[in-house]
Amino acid sequence: LHQRLTSESYSPIKIATMVLSHLFKNNGILRWPSLQHHSTKRSIRAASSVNGSNRTTTAPIVNAWTEWGDLKEIVIGDANNACFPPPSPSFAPTINEEGSVLKFDQATNTVQEHYGRGKILQEELGRWPQGKKSQAAIDAANWQLSNLAELLMDRGIVVRRPTEFPNQDWSLPIKTPFFETQNQYCGTCPRDIVATVGNTILESANSRRDRYFEIHQYRQLIREYWRKDKAMMWKAAPKPSLNDESFDEKWWHLTKEERYENMHEMQFCITEDEPLFDAADMTKLGQDIFVQLSMTT
Q1: Do 86 and 182 form a contact (C-beta atoms < 8 A)?
Q2: Phi, psi at 42, each rounded to 5°
Q3: Cα atoms in the 13 Å half-sphere on the side-chain side of 142
Q4: Which end is more exposed in the chain, N or C (fewer Cβ atoms within 10 Å of the end residue's Cβ)?
């Protein structure tokens, strides 16, 4: 693979595809078995012989090849310490004037939705809010996420939550040699950060600067799965720099019509300076993965 990459010229997207293909096909551990012929025992033996660990398990914990199989275990995020995403070349948030506001009523244990509040917020604030979200908004979001978790648990599905581990402080800024952000985001959407491909957990290469360290909210849980399931593989996409060359800032100044025209040409706010993708843009169908190009992939 190294000889091919150094002897020929490829776009970053092509390189990303080749690297992922190499990881899953050519490392002697996992070879994209078909659903009909996948051998759990063979995978366990291979993983054990390679890493030499004493991890023990009688059945695989991580094993998902489609988006429609019977759900047995899931990770649902939480909104604790959630902040507004700060504007950056990767994301230019605006207030949706048609949007609504949710408020959690502790007395009745319900969430009330007030429509048309977006326009009022726009008139009152005049700009995108900054810093931590209101506790009322956080409580309303957590109420909905917890209701989803309870609904799934009532059906016998194992639900894991980030609340099992210490929550990150999303209000802290990020500073790297390539960029700075005044705060981070939240841990509500693990589906954007981590993908499950067969018995492999893959960390994505997200394009949002405020989500650069979001994976650490789930690292302890991933490590727990890895220790319990010796058939599980743990891989991570190359960590992007997210420098200014990764984004086309002119995108945010285009009209709505111009954006649609660009989108039909598969041109978005991110460039192909380095591989970037959200795990949520991946759909797995057995041996194949479909990936949509988007504002983040």
Answers
A1: yes
A2: -65, -40
A3: 19
A4: N
Q: What is the pLDDT of residues 165-206, one digit of tens each?
A: 888 999 999 999 999 999 999 999 999 999 999 999 999 999
Considering only residues 117 and 244, tell me which one the structure prediction assigns the higher pLDDT: 244
Q: Model pTM?
A: 0.74
Nearest to 58 by CA among 184, 284, 228: 228
pLDDT, residue 219, reads 93
**Rounded to an integer, what is the distance from CA 168 to the centroid of its chain?**
16
Cα distance between residue 171 and residue 84, in whole Å: 9
pLDDT of residue 235: 95
**Burial bucket for residue 177 (CB in 10 Å: 0-12, 13-18, 19+):** exposed
Contact between 226 and 218 (Cβ < 8 Å)? no
Q: How confident is the model at residue 97 (pLDDT cuts 50, 70, 90)?
A: low
